[in-house]
Amino acid sequence: MRFKSKFFFKFFILIFIIWIPLLLLPLILYGKCSHSGSPYCQLFSSPYFPDAADGGHGTNQQSENGFVRHGEMGEPVKFQPGREKEIERLFKINQFNLLASDLISVNRTLPDYRMSRCPKHLSQSYKLPSTSIVIVFHNEAWSTLIRTIWSIINRTPSSLLKEIILVDDASEKDFLGVRLDDYIKSINANIQLVRMHERSGLVKARLKGASIAKGDTLTFLDSHCECTEGWLEPLLFEIYKNRKTIASPMIDVVKDDTFQYVRGASNMWGAFSWTLTFKWYVLPEREMKRRNYDKSEPIRTPTIAGGLFSVDRAFFYEMGTYDEGMNVWGAENLEISFRTWMCGGQLLIVPCSHVGHVFRKKTPYTFPGGSDKVILNNNVRLAEVWLDEWKNFYYLVRPNAKSVSAGNLTSRLELRERLKCKSFRWYLINIFPESQFPLNYIFFGKVRNEQLK
């Protein structure tokens, strides 16, 4: 009897010695990773370890298990004094607060931002088309990329989500290699990962993803987004009603410094300046009146930001996809906007769909040949194909663009002819009469009073 008691006592001690360290290991790693910006520690920003312990350096809400839940319900991540240099150092990597992002769960909660007038059960009431979601990334931070993926999976009806297609545009970060492959395999969802062998830019990478898509529609998202409840159904509903629609969500702001989710203004639409730069402008009275002053109604926007939108897959190809002569990114959103309106389609911003996007003050990426050269090249292609005589106005505003070669435009000019597209004058009169581009002008230059010299 004494022998058995000793045996069970030793056995119990042995089990205790083995299991206690194993149980404590995740907590120890959590504590270390809460103070680190290394990609390795981002492993614990996953569905299996959703909440990082702050160790007294943050001021976000406390959860029931004792861990600090950073950024829940879209709240900002706040730091106590003393971590400014660490934040600044990590900020330079992706041009946003990487430390804040890494502390937020990849499954963080968000409020339902839909207005009360927005329908809640579109997928049950209508036979909506399916979608393939295409996400291009280049050296994206682990936490923002994975959070984008999980926000899609968690807030998209499985009946509508055909697949998620990730296109790696020649990333150089080790953690976006084999580790990402393994992580994706662990997720119970149809996710495909395509690798570009060399840096190709947004246009070519998106077209690569679209070429293997199987969904009825294509939905393009950036790699640092957060989809909210009911985000997809309103976009697909507009395409269901009119297949020649490009539908963009209301793009909310995820702040680059605190990752606070800020609901976007519902009285804005996309347009452009004299330099062919995309801008947000306040809705004119005529558009508010057309919508009967109902803020939940879709906005007929002159242009879209271009990062986030859904489109019928067949219509996308019928309309000529993207201009493959454009490099990296820049002006491709205006090109697809002008082409859609002038060639028989429509652009809508759908206020009942909300997707957050990390807006950065500058890009962390390099442009082959320099950003000015790339953007000028893209703008010149846009002007030569779609602006008609207003291209001369653009060259007056940007005289240095005259010396930029647009490359071969034959296929794009033939596309415009084949689609029987309307003129840019028609666009200015019917779609964007508020444009800064004058319908008629005699002279462009400065007016100066000689007596004030």
Q: What is the top-level CATH class of the domain at 122-359? A: Alpha Beta
Structural class: alpha/beta
Distance between the termini: 113 Å
Helix content: 25-40%
Oligomer: single chain
Level-2 CATH architecture of the domain at 122-359: Alpha-Beta Complex
Gyration radius, rounded: 26 Å
What's the mean pLDDT score? 86
CATH topology of the domain at 122-359: Spore Coat Polysaccharide Biosynthesis Protein SpsA, Chain A
Share in β-strands: 15-25%
Largest sheet: 10 strands, mixed
Order of helices and strands: HHHHEHEHEHEEHEEEEHEEHHEHHHH
Number of helices: 15
Counting DSSP E segments of at least 2 residues, the number of strands comes to 12
Uncertain residue segments: 23-59
Instruction: Give the CATH superfamily of the domain at 122-359.
Output: Spore Coat Polysaccharide Biosynthesis Protein SpsA, Chain A
**Shape verdict:** globular
How would you characterize the overall build of this protein?
The termini are far apart. It is globular and about 65 Å long. It has helices at residues 2-33, 84-94, 98-103, 122-125, 142-155, 178-185, 202-211, 232-241, 285-290, 313-318, 332-342, 371-386, 390-397, 410-418, 424-430, and strands at 131-137, 161-168, 191-195, 217-221, 225-227, 245-255, 261-262, 268-272, 278-282, 299-300, 309-312, 346-359. It has 453 residues and is an alpha/beta fold. The chain has a domain at 122-359: Spore Coat Polysaccharide Biosynthesis Protein SpsA, Chain A, CATH 3.90.550.10. The model is unreliable at 23-59 (pLDDT under 50). The longest helix is centred in the N-terminal third of the chain and has 32 residues, at 2-33. Strand 8 (268-272) and strand 9 form a beta hairpin. Residues 132-314 form the Glycosyltransferase 2-like domain.
